[in-house]
Write a structure and sequence with these properties.
- The complex is a heterodimer of chains A (247) and B (500).
- Chain A has 247 residues and is of the alpha/beta class.
- Chain A folds into two domains: 163 residues, P-loop containing nucleotide triphosphate hydrolases (Rossmann fold), CATH 3.40.50; 66 residues, no CATH class.
- Chain A contains nine helices and ten strands.
- In chain A, the strands form two sheets. A six-stranded mixed beta sheet of chain A has the order 6-7-8-3-9-10, sandwiched between helices. In chain A, strands 2-1-4-5 form a four-stranded antiparallel beta sheet, with helices on one face.
- In chain A, helix 3 packs parallel to helix 5.
- The longest helix of chain A has 18 residues.
- In chain A, 41% of the residues are buried.
- Chain B has 500 residues and is α/β, with parallel strands linked by helices.
- Chain B folds into three domains: 150 residues, Periplasmic binding protein-like II (D-Maltodextrin-Binding Protein, domain 2); 92 residues, D-Maltodextrin-Binding Protein, domain 2 (3-Layer(aba) Sandwich), CATH 3.40.190; 202 residues, MetI-like (MetI-like fold), CATH 1.10.3720.
- Chain B has 22 helices and ten strands.
- In chain B, the strands form three sheets. A five-stranded mixed beta sheet of chain B has the order 7-6-8-5-9.
- In chain B, helix 17 crosses helix 18.
- The chains are: A alpha/beta (247), B alpha/beta (500).
- At the A-B interface, helix 2, strand 6 and helix 3 of A face helix 19 and helix 20 of B.
Chain lengths: 247, 500
């Protein structure tokens, strides 16, 4: 039983347009799974379905063997970390208050949260001096580190990242990619990450899920995708990004 | 000047239904005799005379000056918000009993007695309606009687709104005399004299004991077809009043003739002091030597301003307490949201004067501070509801997603995340609402609720600019102070992260 999240026949449609056709997927414990594909392929939809920001039309999603319902979702969300592009930090709270929001809400004591906060600052290489700052006073990269700390604060079993580095300039992006890889390894973190960048996917992933037009096209390692493409689309997608990188 | 339930307002309770019960209970307790008066000099003076007469007889009495027109005073008397007010027999016949014939004193007394209202014998003067013109203009055109107006349809007629609509007012008068003037406009009584003076109008309605007839050198046109009924001055009172109060009131019967009333009116208008004019009655009538000591301006200003702040503050508090939850509902869109925004929007389009008039006949409201607070509260709602709704709707989707994904329950999302982020917009709404409320609260004086509208109204009535400014300037200053106060609150209440 190593699957932490399991999707069975999950589908979502907006008006008349299917965003996700009925899909099955298992997210393995301790691994980094990357969802990749062109814009509108359904990768973000799939991620948002897991944390129930959107309701599936059909199918069921299981978390640690429990079926996710509207009744248990808030409890399950506290076992899941969520990081989005631009951070989604609350502008009226300092970095520290953003990170500690949920812990305080759940009544955790200062003696519990303080060491955890120092640990996270060290882990994400974020200076503790910046903790009293408000989001507008931080750079894009710093904001993503705060967002990551907020997601990791309660030691979530699953970390969801929706294009977490999408809005950053290349140098900051490269340094954060490196840090993310180290963090995932150190924490043995189960992570599900959405990106459209094949190099990022190849670098961070244990498992890649390539999607197109609301369907999973192929699932496997980057080597599998390169050596044994399941369709012309897979070859085209991989070649397009490689050509661009070489040009 | 305060009735017991006004103290509740100063306290500023949080829970409306409780407050209403409390206020009702307090109103029922023993309290002084309340005398009302209409919004013109003579009525003010008669009200003061009645107050002085009762007080001299050891009966506590209060005078609510210039509450409005006939219908407002009559409803207030019937509803028990006031106990006594001066009225005229012609008005009672036409407006209150709605009779087409002239009724005798006895017939009127019988009719009123059936509904628990008593009437004194006439006070001694007949203050009938008259049409007046400037003497020079009338002589130049050779007009002496109302029927002479037939030949001059070019004359501009300016009439009080009450006279325009009365059953014994303009329409039947014009029919009786077959008048067909090209221009008839409605204008406030006191402003009408100024308009007559500067020639904007040629003819207006007046009362035959009006001091201004002599002061402005006007002539009253002869009622050659005897259209106007008799308007003998009397006091109406609730039959449930203590006998001693009724007896004291009856001592005023047959003690004021026309000449005396004109003198009292002139005294009131030249000194701007109704109590002093009332004292003149007692000096001549009863040989009393009490001299009137007027309230100092500073004291009056403090009283008006405090009252104004009570009215505005209490209604603003209600607007905030009810407006923010309504705004939260409205922010969720859907049918309910549309209904809420639609309703508050429609309230805002009703002229404030009309809103007051609409609330007065309702059972709980009547002529009271409650009505003023209710109207101001309704006016203050829209900016708060709308700003709360848009402030919440403007929160970016990623912020909402983050709040949901953290596992915060809906209530905690609202209090910890959404409301603080929308706080700037919500405070902006409250600020707008506060300024509107402070400005509109001047209208509360129209229904006797006091405040800075009081000097504005009596100044308008006396056509006295200095008195108007005594209310208008503090009201404007107050609006500015409120603005500054909220700018300061912005800095205290809006989270620092939103101000950087």
């Amino acid at each position: 039983m190593s699957a932490l999240v399991q999707l069975i026949g999950v589908a979502k449609q907006y008006a008349d347009t299917p965003a996700l056709h009925p899909t099955n997927l298992s997210i393995e414990r301790g691994k980094t799974t990357v969802l990749i594909g062109p814009s509108g392929c359904g990768k973000s939809t799939l991620l948002r379905l897991v944390i129930r920001l959107i309701e599936p039309d059909t199918g069921n999603i299981y978390f640690d063997g429990t079926q996710i319902t509207l009744d248990n979702i808030d409890m399950l969300r506290r076992r899941i970390g969520y990081v989005i592009q631009e951070g989604g930090l609350f502008p009226h709270l300092t970095a520290r208050a953003n990170i500690l929001l949920m812990a305080r809400h759940l009544g955790k004591s200062e003696s519990e949260t303080k060491p955890r906060l120092s640990e996270l600052c060290e882990l994400t290489r974020f200076s503790e001096n910046l903790l009293p700052r408000y989001p507008v006073e931080l750079s894009g990269g710093q904001r993503q580190r705060v967002s990551l700390m907020r997601a990791l604060m309660l030691s979530p079993e699953l970390l969801l990242l929706d294009e977490p580095l999408g809005a950053l300039d290349p140098l900051v992006r490269a340094s954060l990619q490196k840090d993310l890889k180290e963090i995932f390894a150190r924490l043995h973190q189960t992570a599900l990450l959405v990106t459209h960048d094949l190099a990022e996917a190849a670098y961070l992933s244990d498992e890649i899920v390539l999607m197109n037009e609301g369907r999973i096209v192929q699932q496997g390692s980057i080597v599998d995708l390169r050596e044994k493409p399941a369709s012309n689309f897979v070859s085209e997608f991989i070649n397009a990004q490689r050509t661009l990188a070489l040009a | 000047m305060k009735r017991p339930h006004d103290r509740v307002m100063a306290g500023g309770g949080l829970f409306l239904p409780f407050l209403i019960l409390f206020a009702t209970a307090l109103s029922a307790a023993a309290q002084p005799v309340i005398i009302g008066s209409k919004k013109f000099t003579e009525s003010y003076v008669l009200g003061e005379i009645a107050k002085r007469k009762l007080t001299d007889g050891g009966i506590p009495a209060e005078h609510r000056q210039g509450m409005g027109g006939t219908i407002i005073l009559w409803e207030a008397l019937r509803g028990g918000q006031i106990d006594i007010y001066p009225e005229y027999t012609g008005t009672i016949t036409q407006e209150i009993l709605k009779s087409d014939q002239q009724l005798g004193i006895q017939q009127i007394e019988n009719a009123l007695g059936k509904i628990g209202i008593g009437m004194t014998e006439p006070l001694g003067f007949n203050n009938t309606y008259a049409l007046v013109m400037r003497r020079d203009r009338a002589e130049q055109l050779g007009i002496r009687a109302i029927s002479d107006l037939q030949k001059h349809p070019e004359l501009r007629i300016g009439l009080t709104h009450e006279f325009l609509d009365r059953r014994d007012g303009w329409r039947p008068l014009a029919m009786e005399y077959q008048l067909n003037p090209r221009s008839v406009i409605g204008i406030d009584h006191a402003l009408g004299y100024a308009a007559l003076q500067n020639g904007s109008i040629d003819v207006k309605d007046a009362y035959s004991t009006d001091a201004k007839i002599a002061e402005f050198n006007l002539v009253a046109l002869k009622d050659d077809r005897k259209f106007f009924p008799r308007y003998d001055s009397v006091f109406l009172f609730r039959s449930s009043l203590p006998i001693s109060a009724i007896a004291a009131l009856r001592k005023l019967e047959e003690t004021i003739d026309e000449e005396k009333m004109i003198r009292l009116n002139a005294e009131a208008e030249s000194t701007k002091n109704y109590a002093r004019a009332a004292n003149l009655y007692f000096e001549h009538g009863a040989g009393s030597t009490i001299t009137f000591v007027g309230e100092s301006l500073a004291h009056k200003l403090a009283r008006w301003t405090l009252r104004h702040l009570e009215l505005a503050g209490f209604s603003l508090l209600l607007s905030v307490l009810i407006g923010i939850p309504l705004g939260i509902f409205a922010s969720r869109g859907g049918a309910t949201g549309h209904v809420i925004l639609g309703f508050t929007g429609i309230v805002q389009t009703i002229p404030s004067l009309a809103l007051l008039a609409l609330l007065v006949p309702l059972p709980f409201f009547g002529i009271s501070a409650r009505t003023a607070v209710a109207a101001l509260f309704l006016y203050g709602l829209l900016p708060i509801v709308r700003n709360t709704a848009t402030g919440l709707q403007d929160i970016a989707q990623p912020i909402r997603d983050s709040a949901i994904a953290l596992g915060l329950e809906p209530g905690a999302r609202l209090h910890k995340i959404y409301l603080p982020i929308a706080s700037r917009s919500i405070l902006g709404g409250i600020k707008t609402s506060a300024v509107i409320t402070v400005g509109t609260a001047t209208l509360a004086a129209l229904i006797g609720a006091g405040g800075l509208g009081e000097p504005i109204l009596s100044g308008l009535n006396l056509n006295d600019h200095a008195t108007i400014l005594q209310g208008a300037i503090p009201a404007a200053v107050l609006a500015l102070v409120v603005q500054w106060f909220f700018d300061f609150l912005d800095r205290v209440l809006i989270p620092k992260g939103l101000r950087l």
